[in-house]
Design a protein that fits this description.
By secondary structure, this protein is an all-alpha fold. Helix content is 79%, strand content 0%. The chain is built from six helices and no strands.
């Protein structure tokens, strides 16, 4: 089950990268003037959330090998990853895409939940890999954009 959850996260990341590219191409093709401050802020928040997901995936991949099977299956919770992928799919088919404040907020909340669940699962582990992961996750948690 853990590998399925990670696969959903990787697919969600691919969707976000495609969405970011499509959004930029669409903006350029429309020939609109300069972006508004709100549009630039949303684009910055979106980029930050994509970066956070990349970091989460990297941490989980680093943890898969050295941890026990019970902890591995807990870390990569299938439901959270499916929710993440569904949010990304909805963003991809929406006309507003990543320009919607609601979509960005849902993406942020989902990623925060994943980070919080990872921190909870790793709290009682006493391995070097888990201590490093906890430090990286705390760093991620403090960098979530305000919305």
């Amino acid at each position: 089950m853990g590998n399925h959850a990670l696969r959903h996260q990787v697919e969600a990341l691919k969707l976000l990268h495609e969405l970011n590219g499509t959004w930029r191409v669409r903006s350029d093709a429309e020939g609109r003037g300069p972006q508004t401050v709100a549009e630039r802020a949303r684009e910055s928040q979106f980029s930050r959330l994509v970066d956070i997901l990349s970091q989460i995936i990297s941490i989980e991949q680093d943890l898969i090998g050295p941890l026990s099977e019970d902890l591995r299956s807990f870390l990569l919770r299938h439901k959270d990853s499916v929710d993440l992928k569904n949010i990304c799919l909805r963003m991809a088919v929406s006309d507003a895409g990543c320009q919607s404040d609601r979509n960005l907020k849902e993406l942020r909340v989902c990623l925060q939940l994943i980070v919080d669940n990872l921190l909870s699962a790793l709290r009682d582990e006493n391995s070097l890999s888990s201590l490093g992961a906890v430090r990286r996750l705390v760093g991620i948690f403090t960098t979530f954009p305000d919305m």
